[in-house]
């Protein structure tokens, strides 16, 4: 037993080194990527199944690395958060997203298209975050009243009162706030109660098997009811099939987002998507 445990310790140590090295390499590459403008933004449409109209788009960061190929945000966002690069990354993503959003608003002045942008808790808790962020949006000519900040429930939101104050600075100038990945994180209910939300995004893990597991549909039904009692708008994430669309609609969900409606698209392809959506 003794032997195997020392082998385990060795293996553990090696993999730690590897992880640390990998992390350092990724961080270095990401730092260069931001400088070399390798980051782009894709946009995933959000849909109102009750009116049949497009409601908005969520901007999702993409990294096309010449060395690594396409890197998923699930990989590089955590690296950005741990290394402090998230502030720069967030600024780049925000500027690019807002620029496209302004372009669409100019192309379709009679339509309202909301833009959702992901904000990491690590960004949110930085000093002066709201002031700096609002300045960036205004500098790009963005319209705060059509921009939604998506914040994720995580352990990083330790000081709810502080978080609430930061979010209220955004609300004061017109932004709306969405709680992302609802139901999977920490202290969901305290966030729901205390934060100045407009939208709650119900995590994909509940939507995934909504048509096969009655427990999932019961959970979604309860979340929707609770959110509506608070006056929040609900959005189902990761809707992939028509059957799921019909179910979440029947459960009272206000909005849907997922492959059934559209995958995340580069801005040029979203142009075509909008042309089609607004023609109908
Ligand atoms: P998220 O905010 O929950 O974004 C939704 C994720 O689900 C996206 O993954 C999207 O491509 C994917 N998705 C959408 N519809 C479906 C569906 O029907 N089925 C399935 N299986 N997946 C679907 P993506 O783009 O890989 O992003 C992963 C996560 O990375 C995001 O999760 C978000 O937490 C983070 N992220 C992405 N861009 C940014 C960013 O600019 N800033 C920050 N802070 N985080 C970002
Ligand atoms: Ca999101
Ligand atoms: Ca989400
Ligand atoms: Ca997620």
Task: Please provide a written account of the structure.
The chain is of the alpha/beta class and 280 residues long. The protein has eleven helices and ten strands. The protein has helices at 2-35, 73-83, 86-107, 121-124, 129-139, 160-172, 188-194, 204-207, 214-229, 242-250, 267-279; strands at 39-48, 53-65, 69-71, 114-119, 147-152, 176-182, 199-202, 233-236, 255-256, 265-266. A hairpin with a 3-residue loop joins strand 2 and strand 3. The protein binds ligand C2E and calcium ion (CA) (3 copies).
Shape: globular
What is the averaged pLDDT score?
Answer: 91
SSE arrangement, N to C? HEEEHHEHHEHEHEHHEHEEH
- Cα(first) to Cα(last) distance is 69 Å
Q: State the helical fraction.
A: 40-55%
- Describe the oligomeric state of these chains in a short phrase: single chain
Radius of gyration: 20 Å
Strand content: 15-25%
Extract low-pLDDT stretches: 1-9
Give the tally of β-strands: 10
Largest sheet: 10 strands, mixed
- The structural class is alpha/beta
Count of discrete alpha- or pi-helical segments spanning 4 or more residues: 11
Bound molecules: ligand C2E, calcium ion
Organism: Photobacterium jeanii
Domain EAL: 23-278
Protein name: Diguanylate cyclase
């Amino acid at each position: 037993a003794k032997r195997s445990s020392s082998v385990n310790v060795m293996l553990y140590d090696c993999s730690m080194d590897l992880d640390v090295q990998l992390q350092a390499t990724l961080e270095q590459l990401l730092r260069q990527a931001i400088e070399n403008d390798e980051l782009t933004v894709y946009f995933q449409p959000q849909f109102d199944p009750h009116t049949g109209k497009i409601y908005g788009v969520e901007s999702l960061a993409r990294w096309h690395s010449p060395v690594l190929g396409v890197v998923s945000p699930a990989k590089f966002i955590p690296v950005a958060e741990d290394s402090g690069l998230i502030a720069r990354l967030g600024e780049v993503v925000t500027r690019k997203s807002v620029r496209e959003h302004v372009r669409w608003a100019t192309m379709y002045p009679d339509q309202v298209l909301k833009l959702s942008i992901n904000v990491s808790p690590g960004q949110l808790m930085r000093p002066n975050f709201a002031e700096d962020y609002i300045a960036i949006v205004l500098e790009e000519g963005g319209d705060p009243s059509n921009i939604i900040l998506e914040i994720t429930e995580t352990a990083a939101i330790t000081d709810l009162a502080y978080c609430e104050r930061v979010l209220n600075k955004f609300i004061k100038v017109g932004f709306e706030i969405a709680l992302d990945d609802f139901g999977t994180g920490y202290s969901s209910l305290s966030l729901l109660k205390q934060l100045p939300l407009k939208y709650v995004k119900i995590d994909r893990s509940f939507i995934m098997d909504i048509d096969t597991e009655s427990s999932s549909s019961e959970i979604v039904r309860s979340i929707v009811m609770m959110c509506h009692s608070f006056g929040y708008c609900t959005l189902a994430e990761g809707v992939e099939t028509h059957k799921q669309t019909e179910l979440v609609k029947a459960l009272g969900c206000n909005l849907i987002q997922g492959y059934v409606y559209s995958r995340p698209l580069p801005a040029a392809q979203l142009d075509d998507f909008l042309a089609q959506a607004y023609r109908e």
